Amino acid sequence: MKLLGIGSRIQHPEYGKGVITNVSTKEYWVTFIENGLETIPLDDEFETIEAAENEVDTISLYDVERTLKDVLRRWSGVTELVPMDDKWKGGMMTLKPGRAGLTSKDVPIDTFFHKIVMTRDRLRVMEQKINASNLDAQDKVELQQYITKIYGTLTTFNVLFKSQNDYFVGEKTK
Predict the structure, then answer these.
(1) What's the number of CA atoms in the CB half-sphere (13 Å) around residue 98?
(2) Alpha-carbon span 56 to 51, nearest angstrom
(3) What tens digit of pLDDT does each residue of 83-92 get?
(4) Count of alpha carbons within 13 Å of 5, Cβ hemisphere only?
(5) In 10 A of CB 12, how many CB atoms?
(6) Residue 38 belongs to what H/E stretch?
(7) Within the chain, what is the greatest distance between any pair of CA atoms?
(8) Do the Cβ atoms of 34 and 52 come closer than 8 Å?
(9) How distant is the alpha carbon of residue 82 from its chain centre?
(10) Tens digit of pLDDT for each residue in 126-164?
(11) 51: nearest Cα among 116, 99, 5
């Protein structure tokens, strides 16, 4: 029996998909997407989705947590936690039609902000897919420039973000 290393991804018949976060002499410690942390015997029945080498070197808890968050985000479609500026929390946007006789629509700013963050995250995924694609270099550059222009269009919404690190950034002017 070949031992799997920390970071290996598995599919367990009872617990579902998970990532090995620790290995002892008798069991794997696995964090499952749906069931949290469980320990399973080394010889338990499960499918190996992606094996990581069983290295003797130690790994920091920080590295395990970062890797686990990345894997869970990739598998579950969960976006990173991006805080909204406190002044907008609990606020409401009112959309007023330009024609008389039509009803206004109230939208919670929290809901709108979540949609903006999802848009940003999906643009990032699109960038990654473009970079990993078999397109020629010129096509990749053109698509990246187009995405950068989209980010620039969305800078209006930066006022909603608590941290400037989360802002949309378009093309830099020289």
Answers:
(1) 0
(2) 15
(3) 899 999 999 9
(4) 10
(5) 18
(6) strand 36-41
(7) 74
(8) no
(9) 11
(10) 888 888 889 999 998 999 999 989 989 999 999 999 988
(11) 5
Q: Give the C-alpha separation, 128 to 164, whole Å.
A: 22
Instruction: Give bridge partners of residue 32 from the DSSP assignment.
Output: 18, 36
Residue 140: C-alpha distances to residues 62, 129, 154 (Å): 34, 10, 21
Query: What residue type is 43 in one-letter code?
Result: D
Residue with tokens 């609990």: 90
3-state secondary structure of 129: helix
Q: How far apart are CA 161 and CA 166, in angstroms?
A: 7
- Sequential DSSP letters for 97-122: -SSTTPPPEEEEHHHHHHHHHHHHHH
DSSP code per residue over 134-168: ---HHHHHHHHHHHHHHHHHGGGGGGGBSSGGG--
Q: CA-to-CA distance for 54 and 5, rounded, in angstroms?
A: 4
Residue 59: count other Cβ atoms within 10 Å of its Cβ.
Answer: 14
User: 7: exposed, middle or buried (C-beta count within 10 Å: 0-12, 13-18, 19+)?
Assistant: buried
Q: Are 157 and 168 in contact (CB under 8 A)?
A: yes
18 CA to centre of own chain: 16
Q: Report the predicted TM-score, pTM, of the whole model to 2 decimal places.
A: 0.52
| Alpha carbons 145 and 151: distance in angstroms, whole number | 10
